[in-house]
Here is the input.
Amino acid sequence: MRGRIKKELRKFISNGELIGKQGKDLISIPLPQIDIPHFTFGSRQKGGVGQGQGDVGDPLGADPDEGERKAGSLPGEHLLEVDISLEDLAEILGEELELPRIEPKGQATIVHSRTKYSSLRRTGPDSLVHRKRTYKEALKRQLLAGTYKAERPIIIPIREDRRYRSWKEEKKPEFNAVVIYMMDVSGSMGQEQKEIVRIESFWIDTWLRSQYDGLETRYIIHDAVAREVDQETFYHTRESGGTIISSAYKLAMKIIDEEYDPNEWNIYAFHFSDGDNWSSNDTQECLNLLSNEMLPEVNLFCYGQVESEYGSGQFLRDLNERFEDKEEKVLSSRIEGKEKIFDSIKVFLGKGK
Here is the structure.
């Protein structure tokens, strides 16, 4: 199954097939897309309602020439569903996209203790007997004593041969990290655009959680005004209103300033929009906010422009004109459809920041 996922990862990412039956630590695959049932006209239907010959009790839609239905002999198609951990999924993602490991900035402010069985001792409970090592000790004793016989290799451990697993506490530093997702929910952003954001942010989360033991996630939606919401609201808010992008950046900076010290936190900001903004003046304010306030404090600022038939796409052009090849913390991608999510993730996460 791991090989199959790697082989078809781009398809899984594009279709969102790995999102849905997600538990706390496991995810089930594959998850086929659901087609909503709808009515269609049959190829043999003639005339309108109530037309044609028939008697009371005749089955509707039956073809008298079809004959009796019988059981088939050919095999059907079956889907195999297997659980895979999000950790394994992140590893596959990293291998296929050739993502470098992230090098956290700042100091590790949290120390996590864990118990690791990495040594042996001569005493302990039977539940911790190290059978392989005990066998080796008994074999060595019998070889030294000359009682080992190759033609009858019976090894009988005695009390002195027993070895037991022993543990020690390991102190592992943890780096703090927070992801701030911002999404345009104005009238030009439809369900298809929000579905692209949902799929891409799932994979971004999956990778970042594999790099940090503790990861916090914050969600901001905006049209003409911005507000912080929970995950459910973020993905299911209906589109309406105009667009003032700077409102989202100001709220993101307020959250960072009040709750996340850049010296202690690794901060990632992702903004998804169709590129429409209400005025060039607000676009200039956004670019100044990025230059003067946000970029000095974040690991990365990533802008994903989701193509929409109603969006002009001007914001991406203005952003690239200001920062492209000049600021390594600013990454942008044009997401023309679900099939481009794979490439967009590689752009955003391929720097290892």
Notes: The first strand starts at residue 26 and ends at 29.
